[in-house]
Design brief:
The protein is of the alpha/beta class and 244 residues long. The chain has two domains: 23-110 and 168-239, Rossmann fold (3-Layer(aba) Sandwich); 112-161, no CATH class. The protein is 34% helix and 16% strand. The strands form two sheets. It has a six-stranded mixed sheet with strand order 3-2-6-1-7-8, sandwiched between helices. The chain has a two-stranded antiparallel ribbon with strand order 4-5. Helix 2 (78-93) links the parallel strand 2 (69-74) and strand 3 (101-103).
């Protein structure tokens, strides 16, 4: 009579219930999520009370769905950091052991340049001028890209479709995120686990354009993509944590 094969070792990770025999070669799952609710985008604004609740509900959903979170990363801004903090607060309350909140440069908004300075996507000429060393709002309105950006009814979509913005194209941002996601497998303790990465709408739309060939439009708050990264091109699926 042949011996009964032992049960394979279960490694918590990307999709709840994944099975792997060797954690060292297991993929990393990335939950790439938009930040929670803010009142507007004039500068580095905080999330609202509604946003705080959304972040905590997303964290509770992540835990209840069976994801074993190894780290929570955020994209530089206050709104992404506070969303990450809310997610971790909910994970901690459920007994999970996330390894900390880390500021991740790759998760930032697209790099655009104005007057020699890198500027973030904001909603007014004054807010753009404040990010430069020497320009006024009137100067900003004389720069064709930013004049057209500010006048456009769907600014992020304007950037996604633009073939030569003064900085990153959507394709460049998608390449950045794919390289970032692939690099997470370099961390041994994240193999077979999940990394939550809180970012911005333009980043998600750029990745959606890369995956689908068209701009998916504005993602809902605290939704995005689930990436399974290991060897080869990552699998990318839509993901929408419960936030209400």
């Amino acid at each position: 009579m042949s011996e009964i094969e032992p049960e394979p070792t279960r490694v918590p990770g990307g999709t709840p219930g994944d099975v792997a025999s060797d954690a060292a070669t297991a993929p990393v799952t990335v939950l790439l999520l938009r930040h929670a609710h803010v009142e507007g985008h004039r500068g580095d604004v905080p999330i609202t009370d509604q946003g705080q609740a959304q972040a905590r509900l997303a964290g509770a959903w992540i835990r209840s769905a069976g994801y074993d979170v190894g780290a929570v990363l955020y994209g530089g801004t206050r709104r992404t950091r506070e969303t990450a903090e809310g997610i971790v607060e909910a994970l901690d309350a459920s007994g999970a052991e996330a390894t900390g909140i880390l500021d991740s440069f790759a998760l930032r908004n697209p790099d655009l340049y104005l007057g020699g300075d890198r500027v973030s996507m904001v909603s007014t000429a004054a807010a753009l001028a404040e990010q430069t060393a020497s320009l006024t709002a009137e100067d900003v309105n004389r720069v064709p890209f930013f004049r057209d950006w500010l006048a456009h009814p769907e600014r992020v979509g304007f950037w996604v479709a633009h073939q030569s913005p003064p900085g990153d194209t959507a394709a460049a941002v998608a390449r950045r995120i794919l390289a970032f996601a692939g690099s997470l497998t370099d961390v041994p303790s994240w193999r077979g686990r999940t990394v939550v990465a809180v970012t911005h709408s333009p980043v998600l739309r750029a990745l959606g354009l890369w995956r689908d060939g068209f701009d998916p439009g504005e993602p809902a708050l605290v939704t995005g993509y689930r990436l399974s990264v290991g060897s080869g091109s990552p699998d990318i699926e839509d993901v929408a944590p419960a936030t209400s």
